[in-house]
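Standup notes
- DV: blocked on the single-chain target, sequence here:
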Amino acid sequence: MGVRLRDIQRSLSVVLIRADGLDQAKHKCPRSMTKTHGFEALLRPSLSVLMLWAQGHALGFEIKDADVYKNTNSNVEGIYRLLDKVYNNCNRALPVHICIVQDNCSRDCKNGLLLSWCVKLHVLQVCERISLQYPSKGHTHGPLDGLGGQAVTKCSACEFSDADSLVEIYDGFLQQSTVDGGASFRGDEQANWQSWWEEVGLVFSNLFEITTLKDLGYLQDRDKVVAKALQAHREGCINDAARDFLVGWAKGTLRRHPRPAQYEFLNHNRHAFDALAPAAARAPLAPEEYRPIHVQADGGGNLPPGPEDDEADELPE
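- DV (later): unblocked, structure below
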């Protein structure tokens, strides 16, 4: 019975993580509900918003500036921060099975780099099983799309001047919603996860990676961008925060928010956690011992051994 209960417990110990990017058209920064000629003349970058949902545990929004890399490394950074929340919400433990559902995007999600990351987590015994799943093409009515649509609708009715004010908007959405607890955070700085998972030394065939670096190479005249931002500020079209954001974006001097100093869930070891569980829950039960049965006579004494019971007190082999 203990083995059966253990198997049921392990089969139900799973966390489902959904990750998807939100509509960038609604995240052009700065955003104003009052349109003026000076405001329309601005060249506004689109902030990147990645929604991460660990169902039953946490919901998070990762906001990145327009000039931050968007690739597998940045995608893994967001998943790491969400897993840290799951780890702390589960009393510094992780479920046995981690299931990640992402888009069919070979640049960020569906490639050998992400598979190497999964192998590294398994080698370190952080989790027992990890699976990558991808929805069918053209999906628009899944749980993540519905939740993301509500978040974008909330954002489209608000004004924001920089990435920090956008974080506050999504924090307000989390407080008003009935979904699992979580938080919004800046994803400006990322750990070098690629060198971390390359230690596995595996190469997968029929998978490929398209690396796209987001930079300011397409800005032919950065001084013109700065001039338009300063002019819009003088005309009262944008506030100080929006001016500083646009100038910093054009000059590449935006303030970066540091990443976490450590990722606590990597300290989790599934075998160490099993050692704290009852013996019946972590190992198969030993066969039940055979014990001799002594039958007493009417007078209270034991019956004499039969002709074939030369050693009645010993256990049968």
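- Follow-up: The chain has one domain: 2-271.
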